[in-house]
Amino acid sequence: MSQKHFNLVKTCVGARAGELNTSHGKVLTPLFMPVGSQATVKTLTPEDVKGLGFSMLLANTYHLYLRPGIDVIKKLGGLHKFMAWDGAILTDSGGYQVFSLSPLCKITDEGVKFRSHIDGSEHFLTPELAIKYQEALGSDVIMVLDECSAYGDDAGKIKKAMDRTHRWAERCLKAHKKKGQALYAIVQGGMFPDLRKASAKYLTELDFPGYAVGGLSVGEPKEVTLPIIEQTTALLPSDKPRYLMGVGSPEDLVEGVARGVDMFDCALPTRVARNGALFTRQGRVNIRRAIYAKMDKPVDPSCDCYTCRTFSAAYLSHLFRAEELLALRLATIHNLRFINNLMRDIRNAILDGKYDAFARKFLSEYQTTNEQTRVEQKGKWLKGRK
Amino acid sequence: MSQKHFNLVKTCVGARAGELNTSHGKVLTPLFMPVGSQATVKTLTPEDVKGLGFSMLLANTYHLYLRPGIDVIKKLGGLHKFMAWDGAILTDSGGYQVFSLSPLCKITDEGVKFRSHIDGSEHFLTPELAIKYQEALGSDVIMVLDECSAYGDDAGKIKKAMDRTHRWAERCLKAHKKKGQALYAIVQGGMFPDLRKASAKYLTELDFPGYAVGGLSVGEPKEVTLPIIEQTTALLPSDKPRYLMGVGSPEDLVEGVARGVDMFDCALPTRVARNGALFTRQGRVNIRRAIYAKMDKPVDPSCDCYTCRTFSAAYLSHLFRAEELLALRLATIHNLRFINNLMRDIRNAILDGKYDAFARKFLSEYQTTNEQTRVEQKGKWLKGRK
């Protein structure tokens, strides 16, 4: 790439504001990418996503490989054209999905054999194929194939997976030829600081344009996650972007940025929206609760999203109770706009040199309660959806 | 109402072009109203509906009475404000839903006792209450409470229901006080020409601002429906709008207009859209069929809707196969835009004095096949939805 992939603009304690240069425009960091695994951010058109302020989203090689197939998308002009999105796209290699969704998954040094969660058909994915598929999709940032460990695996098992991840990262680097596409490595090593250190060292020596912190949010408690993030980002070069995969609740975004993370993706904001859980600066609220049934004000009177500008909480509550499809879109719009505005505020606080105060204030006001877990598990009429 | 509710602009053989004057603007006829029974046209925002070209929609008193409750909507400023729709609204009285959805339904001269299809609770609806509720909703056109007969009922039973409908119509007329709201009567009489004649005579003498043709599309074959429509509209005053309830497939719209109908509503275009059946001038196509899986062109290259302007048939097909929620919205947008454009073309053909040629050409090109029935019954992942 002629331009530098990443420019660090400002650092404020550990938090960083920067810019990613991609083949589909400049993207400001810290960055949240809405999840569009199957080439669609659930319930939204690309116009909607752009209108909410996002300039980069995430799609998934595993999902797109199985359906509609990489060849179909390639034939139709690549992923951007296929889904009519002219912003930037990051594709995950599909490694995580192979490990988490496939009913069978057999790993050798050569690659990973897995079964489709859709029809049970057998497939084989190698580092070289992961690159080939992502080159065909034409995404702006692509990821190496890595071996994911489970929380609770012992150090020997974690190390073995990490070593294989390193060998695979080298093969990915060697296989990757497409210009205008940045290939990121994924630091593994589980919850073991020594392994994280070894992984960061190995991968940074290979000089990738970006680094992801992998193997987190796999069931470990948050007291374990945050120090690992902090330790890992400290081991990464400051002139390369750091991407924390699969993290994106409001509180985790604020905490992650404080620990030097530049990029995030997460299905949580859109998934909980479909369950009726809406973000406010005071925490998540469950729109199905009785207090909203007659409320004339928007869910969040301070919010500038289409949903809050247009409808009362009572109307949104009605749509959820009546199981109307519009409910899902309106709630998604609200939650993503909340996240977009939060990322904007985060960046401005860093640029103003006031991130620490911003984060403290946000985290003191934003309540996380047990209710959230209940809300997340509800989603009655969409049960079983991915 | 200070202005005349309906102006007949032009007649072409039996087809009529006109204008409805409502408290929420002028509406051109022939008119199709998208169905928003629960105060939402399924999957669409009011902005979407307006953008598709519609200026009037239908909502349902039965549904809104049960959920969220008439009082809630009234307290929130009426139905227009509640659903953020500044166009015109017609509400059905709920009579048809009481008869078709309630697990129990007991009719006396006083009114109808029914059970909620949601929670089984017992309710009582009278002509006076139907008016009171619709006044509270604040819709622009409201309907009398009528007694609906089933196809196959004998003449005696049909006549009894018709006579009660007439008495109820008079009570509705007497109860209705709200200005700026037009109350339509509903002509009954089943498939019996003599009864239709008696019903039209009785109701036109009461001088309502509009008349619906009720009791059709209740299971009778189309060869029976069309002559009854033609015969009934001929009995109605030419300076009042005629509304054919629950009819709205493309071919039925063309046939209905030819028989002097001015207004239609129907859930079919939006319902079949959610099942993956898309309208084209050649007939409905099932987007899930294999031929669309790799098709680079839009479903209907001649269509100007957002879906066809933006996405390939392959992408839409992918969304349906992947059971993505965006599929439902994109298909709904297409089908409603198709209907909107059809109504525009119909009106222009009438104004040009060429409706007969237009209708013949449309009906000769638009194929109806057995496949349609299959498509309609599919809707796998929305089964059971209303």
Task: Annotate the secondary structure layout.
The structure is a homodimer of 386-residue chains.
Chain A: E1 6-12, E2 15-22, E3 25-29, E4 31-33, H1 46-51, E5 56-60, H2 61-66, H3 70-75, H4 79-83, E6 88-92, H5 95-101, E7 105-107, E8 112-115, E9 122-125, H6 127-137, E10 141-143, H7 155-175, E11 182-187, H8 193-205, E12 210-213, H9 222-234, E13 242-244, H10 250-258, E14 263-265, H11 268-274, E15 277-280, E16 283-286, H12 306-310, H13 313-321, H14 325-351, H15 355-365, H16 371-378
Parallel strand pairs in A: 4-14, 5-6, 6-10, 10-11, 11-12, 12-13, 13-14
Antiparallel strand pairs in A: 1-2, 2-3, 7-8, 8-9, 15-16
Helix pairs in contact in A: 6-7, 7-8, 10-14, 10-15, 11-14, 13-14, 14-15
Essential attributes:
homodimer, 386 residues, alpha/beta, TIM Barrel, eight-stranded parallel beta sheet, 16 helices
In short:
Chain A has 386 residues and is an alpha/beta fold. Chain A is built from 16 helices and 16 strands. Chain A has helices at 46-51, 61-66, 70-75, 79-83, 95-101, 127-137, 155-175, 193-205, 222-234, 250-258, 268-274, 306-310, 313-321, 325-351, 355-365, 371-378, and strands at 6-12, 15-22, 25-29, 31-33, 56-60, 88-92, 105-107, 112-115, 122-125, 141-143, 182-187, 210-213, 242-244, 263-265, 277-280, 283-286.
Question: C-alpha Rg of chain A, in Å?
Answer: 20 Å
Tell me the distance between the termini of chain A: 35 Å
| Largest β sheet strand count, sense and barrel closure of chain A | 8 strands, parallel
Alpha-beta classification of chain A:
alpha/beta
DSSP helix count of chain A?
A: 16
Assigned CATH architecture of the largest domain in chain A: Alpha-Beta Barrel
Strand segment count of chain A: 16
CATH superfamily of the largest domain in chain A: Queuine tRNA-ribosyltransferase-like
Shape call of chain A? globular
Summed over residues and divided by their number, the pLDDT of chain A gives a mean of 93
CATH topology of the largest domain in chain A: TIM Barrel
Strand content of chain A: 15-25%
How are the strands ordered across the major sheet of chain A?
4-14-13-12-11-10-6-5
Largest interface (CB within 8 Å) is between: A-B, 41 and 41 residues
Poorly predicted runs of chain A: 370-386
Determine the oligomeric state from the structure.
homodimer
Which percent bin holds the helix content of chain A? 40-55%
